Amino acid sequence: MATPLPQEINTLIQQLNNQQFASVAKRAGQLVAQYPREFVLHHLLALALDQGQQYPQAAQAYAQALKLQPNAVELWFNYAIVLTHLNRLPEAEQAYRKAIALNPQFFEAHGNLGTLLQKQGRLDEAIASYQQGLRIQPQDARGHFNLGTVLRDKGQLPEAVRSYEQAIALFPDYTDAYNNLGETWRDQGDMAKAVQYYQQALQRNPQHAVANYNMGEFLYLAKRFEEAIPYFQASRLDDWQSRVLYCLYQAGKFEDFKQLRNEVMQQGPHTAPFIATLSTHYSLNHGEADPYQFCPDGLEFVYHRRIPELAPGSPLLAELLDNIAQADIAERKQARLTNGKQSAGNLFKRPEAAFRTLGELVKREFKLYRQHFQQASCALITHFPEELEFTSSWYVKMQNGGHLDAHIHEIGWISGAVYLAMPTTEDQKEGAFEYGTHGDQYPKLQDNFPTRFIKPEVGDIVLFPSSLFHRTIPFNANAERICVAFDLKPSPHLQTAHSQY
Predict the structure, then answer these.
(1) For residues 259 and 271, is the Cβ–Cβ distance under 8 A?
(2) 390 within 8 A of 396, measured Cβ to Cβ
(3) Nearest to 111 by CA among 76, 86, 140, 154
(4) Of 306, 256, 298, 310, residue with least CA distance to 274
(5) Where are this protein's TPR repeats (predicted)?
(6) What's the pTM?
């Protein structure tokens, strides 16, 4: 005789509570076919599939359950989270808004909707959503943390600090908030406070990956290379091996560097631009062929083109210059920059239409770059990122005497700049963009490190492998030099992910 349905349901609930997700999904699926109008079976099936990370099937199960009970608020919320995992963002937004319409006091839904909007670069809407959630539940530490992340994205650094501090006041062991607070003070140039908060995070969680990484970064920028290595090793985050190699190389431990580089090369394709920079420099220093195949001849992969929409006198150019002059964007301290200002936050995520338009034009140029070099066999092209996302984007304004020392963008793939204002100089090299194979005070055993330069004009774009050193040659003219710079990222950004409810 078949087991009565109520007893089956109770068994499934008990198994779900015991995290037997596969068993629940299998049996609930069988029962759903037998009792297609039984809401609780669809609900249990959806929860089991969701917890088992079978997101496509979970989405179908939630949709079926919601057909039977369209006013089930929690289901709309869970459905939205699953849709977000599937990157079905417009549908996820609709599901969150449905949950909020059914229960306007559902502060978790307001918070998650904020994170979804922030992910799409809709920063002002995200701020409004986070703030609405906090009006409902002002004691929500995660809400204050998330608000801090979007304010930082927008370049409102003092406001971001206050939000992170409020999160910590409510939850004193909030390690992500300590770390992000440190990053925000770093962005404002106060390394003493930044390190204080990284250490606070590590006191509470010595394995905190991002705080370890940030401490390592602080120590290597302070040229305390051997001290930095254990922090990068503890982080095991993204390009940590590149950072360890950098420390070994800067410390002059060439044999240790070569041994680790060769070990890393055995682990997979040569897709780390930072390692490419180091390997090229080591090979030139030691008169050896460069074995790292990210982009061994990076000087040949620089792309220079005019963007028609940014021609002198164009409406977009005028609007961009006006936004840069008028927008309330905080300054980020930049030690390599002389007589200039660099913006904080992520410019292409700001609400101004001109910045969004420029971001789309840059994405178009990235695609053209890939097409231009499509016959190349190096990893730069063969492993070119399919998703065009920006690690960051910022403007740099320089005045008379301005220049930027040679550096690379360690977490980029392709880097570049669009030029909005250029000084007129008699010397062709003044204010030019120079690129090459040496910089950042790397140890030099010889002087044969080739460089080239481009003198951009207004409306030009320059794209180049992130493995190349580049700098701005000083200029003497009573005029501004303004560009918007950016990195295309090959992998998820190092910044701590937003808390979800």
Answers:
(1) no
(2) no
(3) 140
(4) 298
(5) 39-72, 73-106, 107-140, 141-174, 175-208
(6) 0.76
- The position carrying tokens 């997979």 is 268
pLDDT for the residue numbered 326: 86
In contact, 354 and 320? CB cutoff 8 Å: yes
Query: What does the alpha-carbon distance between residue 109 and residue 100 come to, in Å, rounded to a whole number?
Result: 6
Burial class (CB in 10 A: 0-12, 13-18, 19+), 244: buried
Tokens encoding 237: 């985050």
With tokens 């220049």, the residue in question is 403
Which of these ranges, 106-110, 170-174, 223-227, 348-352, has the smallest mean pLDDT? 348-352
Longest dimension (CA), the chain: 96
| Closest by Cα among 328, 349, 324, 334 to 153 | 349
CA 11, chain centre distance (Å): 44
Query: Which secondary-structure segment (H or E) carries 368?
Result: helix 353-372
Specify which residues 482 forms β-bridges with: 397, 421
Q: Quote the Cα angle for 402-404-407, to 5°.
A: 175
Which segments of 86-190 does DSSP mark as H helices, in order? 89-102, 107-119, 123-136, 141-153, 157-170, 175-187
Sign of CA dihedral 305, 308, 313, 317: negative
pLDDT digits (tens, 9 = 90+) for 14-59: 999 999 999 999 999 999 998 999 999 999 999 999 999 999 999 9
So what's the pLDDT on residue 498?
38
For residue 148, count other CB atoms closer than 10 A to its CB: 28
| Residue 370, both tokens | 């890939």
**Hey, what are 393's tokens?**
């984007």
Backbone angles phi, psi at 99, to 5 degrees: -60, -40
- At which residue do the structure tokens 């079978």 appear? 54
**Tokens describing residue 312:** 């002198």
Domains and CATH numbers, the chain: 5-156 (1.25.40.10), 299-488 (2.60.120.620)
- 161-202 pLDDT, tens per residue? 999 999 999 999 999 999 999 999 998 989 999 999 999 999
Measured between its terminal Cα atoms, the distance across the chain in Å is 43
What the block records as the tokens of 258 is 């070569």
Query: Does residue 147 have a pLDDT over 70?
Result: yes
Q: Are strands 414-421 and 481-488 parallel, antiparallel or unpaired?
A: antiparallel
pLDDT in tens, 409-467: 887 899 999 999 999 998 989 999 999 999 999 999 999 999 999 999 999 999 999 99
Neighbours of 297 (CB within 10 A): 11
3-state helix, strand, coil in the chain (%, to 5): 55, 15, 35
Rounded CA-CA distance 343/193 in Å is: 20
Amino acid at 347: L
Query: Is it the case that residue 218 has pLDDT exceeding 90?
Result: yes
